[in-house]
Design a protein that fits this description.
Elements: E1 13-17, E2 23-26, E3 33-37, E4 46-50, E5 58-62, E6 68-71, E7 77-81, E8 90-94, E9 100-104, E10 110-114, E11 117-122, E12 132-135, E13 140-145, E14 150-155, E15 160-165, E16 175-180, E17 183-187, E18 193-194, E19 200-201, E20 211-215, E21 218-222, E22 229-232, E23 237-240, E24 252-256, E25 260-264, E26 270-272, E27 280-283, E28 292-296, E29 303-307, E30 312-315, E31 321-325, E32 335-339, E33 342-346, E34 352-355, E35 361-365, E36 375-378, E37 383-384, E38 392-395, E39 402-406, E40 412-417, E41 420-424, E42 431-432
Antiparallel strand pairs: 1-4, 1-12, 2-3, 4-5, 6-7, 8-9, 10-11, 13-14, 13-16, 13-24, 14-15, 16-17, 18-19, 20-21, 22-23, 25-28, 25-36, 26-27, 28-29, 30-31, 32-33, 34-35, 37-40, 38-39, 40-41, 41-42
């Protein structure tokens, strides 16, 4: 399995939402905690860590402060411990409706409250001691079975999700977590939801929603009957089994899902590595050899392209482009220039990548013409969740506008047409106008929107 940043297990960050829809917050001043924030920002993000003593207890570390939540014997709570001590140990008690109850392990009391009146002194569970787990990570990811070491993907022939793929390649490996009624759904790339009996359904019905549980940094999905999802049988079909507790078979990792793209050259053929190590415009259909995983360096905004055969595009002698590099280096980085509905790629030698007469690529051009332009198509986001610096994008209720600072997200539909895209909401009759560098704008009045180029801001 390739490394070097390709298979990155997501650090599970989340918010804890109380019964009055306010988030548990860690303040810098006095290391106090409260439940006053109406939205999920950095101060409201927490990381769950296993107890170093390998017990059932867990630790809650603030992403904002880097310190641990603690509860003293008299019920006072704070987030000031730089290292986890005895008072930082909590037991997570999942409830039937998907919410959590947090109990201090050493003191046996329950944690809850409202606003700035939080304590861990309750002897019984009331609504103020119930917390909803709200994931703060991007919800579109790859799902890896811990026991089988295989990725979950959509098998259209069997009409199921199965954990039997060696690599998360192509659109069928995309899994979208949806949040509704305090539970999560697993949505396949075709928009259908996984029901606990293994069937895929169009609507997020009760049996297609799950409670999240965490064990040793891994995820488990519990259905409404208290059973856990696991790969079953030789086909590794994902369904709820008989287990009422998460063992190794019921545990999953979430891995970051990078953009996967295909590129079309001026000869109307796909760039491919099907015929060897040279990247060439030689194929008439888009399969795995024509699909490349694209990563954007956040500092330089340059891109790398990784092939299904296990190598990065790299600049070689005489300007050739081959998919042979095992590691990222200066020669594997390409500067992407958006030219309307086309892109041009500049290699590390300062020259543009062009298509030669035999279809092979070479970075030998000093300017951009038809042979230096490519259509770039994003293939693993047929459904799309958008997140900016301030939060997720969601449709404002009762309005035709979009907010870009929401804690809860909408799932949009992405369709491609000649180098540009339509982005549509749940109501397929509404087109939405987006660019990659500006906030989402409301759909203008009049006829349906024309497609627009969709770039990456990095």
């Amino acid at each position: 399995m390739p490394t070097n940043g390709l298979h990155q297990v997501l650090k599970i960050q989340f918010g804890l939402l109380n019964d009055t829809d306010r988030y548990l917050t860690a303040e810098s001043f006095g290391f106090k905690v409260n439940a006053s924030a109406p939205s999920l920002k950095r101060k409201q993000m927490w990381v769950l860590e296993p107890d170093p003593g390998q017990g059932a207890a867990v630790l809650f570390r603030s992403s904002h402060l880097g310190r641990y939540l603690s509860a003293q014997e008299d019920g006072r709570v704070a987030c000031e411990a730089e290292r986890p001590g005895r008072d930082c140990r909590f037991l997570v008690l999942p409830q039937p409706d998907g919410r959590w109850v947090l109990r201090s392990e050493p003191h046996g009391r329950f944690f809850g409250g409202t606003e700035d009146q939080l304590s861990c002194f309750a002897t019984a569970i009331s609504p103020t001691e119930l917390w909803t787990v709200h994931l703060a990570i991007h919800p579109q990811a790859h799902l890896l079975s811990v026991s089988r070491r295989r990725y979950v993907h959509l098998c259209l022939r069997e009409d199921e999700l199965a954990a039997d793929s060696n690599t998360p390649w192509g659109v069928d490996a995309l899994i979208t977590l949806t949040f509704q009624n305090r539970r999560y759904g697993l949505r396949a790339c075709d928009g259908r939801y996984l029901r606990s009996d293994g069937r895929l359904v169009r609507e997020p019905e009760a049996r297609a929603r799950y409670t999240l549980e965490f064990k040793a940094g891994k995820l488990a999905f519990k259905d409404c009957d208290g059973r856990y999802l696991a790969p079953a049988g030789p086909a590794a079909t994902l369904r709820a089994g008989r287990s009422t507790g998460p063992g190794k078979d019921e545990l999953f990792d979430l891995e970051e899902s990078h953009p996967q793209v295909v590129l079309v050259a001026a000869n109307h053929r796909y760039l491919s590595v099907r015929q060897g190590v040279n990247v060439s415009a030689s194929q008439d259909e888009e399969l795995h050899h024509e699909t490349f995983l694209m990563q954007v360096d956040q500092e330089t905004k340059k891109c790398t392209f990784y092939s299904s055969t296990g190598g990065y595009w790299t600049l070689v002698a005489h300007g050739g482009i081959q998919a042979t590099a095992a590691q990222v280096s200066a020669n594997t980085m390409f500067e992407m220039e958006w030219r309307g509905r086309r892109v041009a790629l500049k290699a590390s030698n300062g020259r543009y990548v062009c298509m030669k007469k035999n279809g092979q690529l070479a970075a030998t051009s000093d300017s951009v013409g038809e042979d230096e332009e490519f259509i770039l198509k994003l293939i693993n986001r047929p459904i799309l969740v958008l997140r900016g610096l301030d939060g997720f994008v969601r449709h404002r209720r009762g309005s035709n506008q979009l907010d870009t600072n929401r804690s809860v997200y909408d799932v949009f539909h992405l369709s491609f047409s000649d180098g540009a895209y339509h982005i549509r909401g749940a109501d397929r009759g509404q087109g939405l106008w987006f660019t990659s560098r500006h906030p989402a704008l409301p759909s203008p009045p009049g006829p349906p929107l024309r497609p627009i180029p969709l770039g990456w801001a990095g």
